[in-house]
Amino acid sequence: MKTRNFLLPVATAGVLALTLSACGGGGGGSSSGGSDAASQGLDGRGPITYVQGKDNSNVVRPLIEKWNAAHPNEKVTFKEQTDQADQQHDDLVQHFQAKDAGYDVASVDVVWTAEFAAKGWLQPLKDKMALDTSAMLKPTVVAASYKNTLYAAPESSDGGILYYRKDLVPTPPKTWDEMMSMCSIAKANNMGCYSGQFKKYEGLTVNASEAINSAGGAVLDADGKPSLLTPEAKAGMANLAKAYADGSIPKEAITFQEEESRQAFQDGKLLFLRNWPYVYNLATTEGSSKVKDVLGMTALPGKDGPGASSLGGHSAAISVYSKNKATALDFLKFLTTEETQKFFATQGSLAPVLGSLYEDKDLVAKLPYLPVLKTSIENAVPRPVTPFYPAVTKAIQENAYSAIKGEKTVDAALSDMQKSIESASAGQ
Ligand code: GLC
């Protein structure tokens, strides 16, 4: 049995790279299929396709219309995927594997960068293809990079927010225990108390990691090794399991992804909701929303004070198989201009990647939650950075799901999670 390190240089800029030991063969982390492709099409101009998950916030189409009006010979077509992170991932993998020249620019979740870059599918943004990231929030740039090379343009960031009902909760909770003690208010109002995203998919990895981090634990330690066998990690996971068992997290929440949980909150069925900033726009503008005028936003609750969000967000990457990379690079630049980023923020309440916008007086007047969001992003904990992320997230999701549903004890779930992350490696 041979031990290998599949490792990234650990922890520059606060990112924990996962130290994986694995046995046997399996794909390494180096770029294979894409290295030749990466030298081609650099000057190509012409129509391109932009692939992204469901445009919940209705910002992509108007933006592309604007681009197309100004670039009649380099039009962008929008290929919209579903609203489910895992399906988006699998769709991109299939098209990259098929070397599809028709997926020119893809929106890449922060947790996919390492995997896709290691496979050689993403065009490195250097030399002729360089992109200036100096005005961007550092965590967004780190998340779009792999082995110190930038592989995508940070497009929107994401930090978890606790949404609450201002009409029913005069002072929002700062800790998990405080929030749980307020579940009596939910009960008195015949509504569910708390939900995040607890279906077995990427969102559960986000929520389980947040529960662990917010209780003072960590999925990985400072050396990038799984560290789930601690009292703090146990406390975090037990918080979710207990709340589900006693009904503070309503039973249907085990099927919720972002959109289902948003809908439940907007329908007045939840007192507290953990979700991303995009909810603000829809919850305050959709005609059917019952929470329009009573929407509160604050930091996720922690142990003794605010908790720690998982870092989310997306970056726009150019496929190495694109034939029109010069156009694609211009489109990436267009996605990151101050104007576009302001548009994303004001129209879709998406989190800007440009640091200056969080201090922009006009914007803060319009979107008063921006300081809460900035703190959430700055303190957010990245999920493990590894080319073998699919196996790692599976280990977290499956065990968190069993623990929440009470199918495994919290101890057994964490011990299995620890073991599976340790043995996670390509194709195994
Ligand atoms: C959001 C986040 C992304 C995360 C996903 C989980 O889209 O931006 O980082 O993986 O939710 O569902």
User: What is the CATH level 1 assignment of the largest domain?
Assistant: Alpha Beta
Question: What is the CATH homologous superfamily assignment of the largest domain?
Answer: Periplasmic binding protein-like II
From the spread of the alpha carbons, the general shape counts as: globular
Number of domains: 2
Residue share in β-strands: 5-15%
Query: Which small compounds were modeled alongside the protein?
Result: alpha-D-glucopyranose
Number of strands: 11
Strand order of the largest sheet: 2-1-3-11-6
Q: Give the C-alpha Rg.
A: 21 Å
Topology-level CATH name of the largest domain = D-Maltodextrin-Binding Protein, domain 2
Give the ordered list of helices and strands. HEHEHEHHEEEEHHEHHHEHEEHHHHHH
Computed structural class: alpha/beta
- Per CATH, which architecture of the largest domain? 3-Layer(aba) Sandwich
Instruction: Let me know the largest β-sheet.
Output: 5 strands, mixed
The termini sit apart by 14 Å
* Separate helix tally: 17
Low-confidence stretches: 1-13, 21-32
Mean pLDDT across residues:
92
> Helical residue percent?
25-40%
